Amino acid sequence: MADAELARNIVGIIGNVISLFLFLSPTPTFFKIWKQKSVQSFKPDPYLATVLNCAVWVFYGMPFVHPDSLLVVTINGIGLGIEVIYLTIFFIYSDWPKRRKVLIFLLVEFVFFGLIVFVTLMFLHGTKNRSMLIGILAIVFNVLMYASPLTVMRRVIKTKSVKFMPFYLSLANFANGLVWFSYAFIKIDVYLLVPNGLGTLSGAVQLILYATYYRTTNWDEEDSNKSEVELQNAPSAALPAHT
Questions:
Q1: I need a labelling partner for 36 at 20 to 30 A (CA). Which of 104, 115, 123, 132 fits?
Q2: Which pTM value belongs to this model?
Q3: Each residue's pLDDT tens digit, 121-165
Q4: Where is the segment annotated Disordered (predicted)?
Q5: What is residue 93's predicted lDDT score, i.e. its pLDDT?
């Protein structure tokens, strides 16, 4: 039992490191925004979604919701802080319509999250019931957020080009899903198993597509929709499979 717990902690620490890399991977995009003092065609949607997602997983990992989930809390807490920094930069260099969108979405998310916390603590008693509600919500959010990487994969198949699906990011997504799936499997946690199983599958498909279409990729071809494709890649960078 002690050996299993040690193995789980080691795997969880490795997962934290990989997840941190994924959270930080959009940094070049925001450095570009800061340098040019303009958000250009980039949108805040994936980062707004990640804020709520991270908050839900932090709440899931609380001792009074799902005990023995410290490593889930740490990485999602860090991720939440990173996403807030991203949104702050976006807000500073946006025009008023985009700022208003950010403020409205954050307000809606704050109210929604507050409602989740209120219902969980006031009407659900015991960690089993609380884990079930928050875990199901977290899984639903994760499944919905896989729509964006699917868009990129569809583009790869259509164009037979992997130019805008970075290999190392796809590899990191696969490794991240696999590590957190293993973490959840050692001490069965179905609410971590399901999204990370999907994350592992998504990462594996991306790697298969990369191997399939690498030779047909025209690396010198210009793409007028580069910013849009970068945006579509952003959620898979910003959303580790367990978050």
A1: 104
A2: 0.85
A3: 999 999 999 999 999 999 988 877 766 677 788 888 998 888 878
A4: 224-243
A5: 95
> How many residues are recorded in the chain?
243
Using alpha carbons only, what angle is made at residue 110 by residues 106 and 113, rounded to the nearest 5 degrees? 135
pLDDT at residue 108 is higher than 70: yes
In which domain, by residue range, is 20 found?
2-238
Answer whether residue 74 is part of any domain. Answer: yes
Q: How many domains does the chain have?
A: 1
Measured between alpha carbons, how far is 204 from 181 in angstroms, rounded to an integer?
A: 14
Q: What is the pLDDT of residue 147?
A: 64
Burial class (CB in 10 A: 0-12, 13-18, 19+), 78: middle
Asked, for residue 149, whether it belongs to a domain, the answer is yes
Residue at 150 is within a domain: yes
